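Quick one: structure tokens for this chain, please?
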Amino acid sequence: MFIQTEATPNPATLKFLPGRVVLQEGTFEAKDADGAARSPLAQRLFDVPGVAGVYFGHDFISVTKADGVDEWPQVKPALLGAIMEHFQSSAPVMAEGSAQADDDAEEFYDAADHDTVVTIKDLLETRVRPAVAGDGGDITFRGYKEGVVYLEMKGACSGCPSSTATLRHGVQNLFKHFLPEIREVQAV
């Protein structure tokens, strides 16, 4: 098994590509060892000293290192070993009976804004999410109110120094181009 790694715009997060599907559907994020309980793979990754978060996409794993860990060479070999051992053991990525997707958070918007929200979600799905996934993260719709779109950043994008610029200059400008009623995009 050969696992590729890629740097992400977030220097605290590294993207691992195991060359196989990680999650068939949806995404999974654990921000601490307690949150990893639904996933044997996430638990194994949190057993590596210095891990502060994990995120699973369709074909990648993003791992965020803790603040006290200076460089990736201290953590990367143990993570590669943990990922390889997990996939070679044929253990499931998610525990039996646990839902795979983390995309079930409550959304909020006025029913009168339904058409605008449909367009926002379509733009996110077709233009934004593929690019963000390429950087080891995800961005999901959480709400819309009075011209403000509320989005949640996950994986490598959560806490990334460039995520504010991505939201303000990339996503916000895209939305304004297609939906002039949008005034602002905010992270939640």
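The chain has a mean pLDDT of 87.
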